[in-house]
Amino acid sequence: MDQKKSNSDVVYVDLSGKKFQLDSKPKLKWACRRGMLELDVLLEPFVDEAYDALSNERKAAFQRLLTCEDPDLFAWFMGHKECEDPELADMVATILNRVRVS
């Protein structure tokens, strides 16, 4: 998956090469469906229960997070590796903290 920015909008490119903006809940939920169940159970509930309360900047960070590769996401969420992008690392921490509190 790849990410491109245009007018501060994130364009999601799926594995088939289809491009679309993550500009609606159904598209976000679709982008949360990953190849790993461990990621699905973190990302999909976050969209359902917490995404709407985020600021526009944090929503953009979450959308950027969805453009990352599954192995990277898995490593960040499982604590095997630290994300070098501070904005994405903060979003990973936000999602993990939400799960720990629930």
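Second entry:
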Amino acid sequence: MNTSSPQLLRLHEADNVLTVLSTLEPGDALHLGQTVLTVGKRLPIGHKVAARPIAAGEKICKYGVPIGSAVCAIAEGEHVHTHNIKSDYLPTFERENQHSYFQPTP
């Protein structure tokens, strides 16, 4: 899928997510191939949106490599972040349990 939105970047042809290049505000239009989607919530620079529908359990690819798996179905143009993906390599970071990721220093 080609994107004609200058606010989005596909880093590798195998990616199923697009990187936000400038902050998107609610109401902004995203042109994804033949589809035009309206941004529903603020998306900061560097965040990801789905380039196409992504099924629950499907690998999320960025830079041409899997970076995690979808924990639920993700619609084309939807924000892709820690609320709907999980890392296949490291535990998902949550502020509430960050102590479990670090060893106490003596």
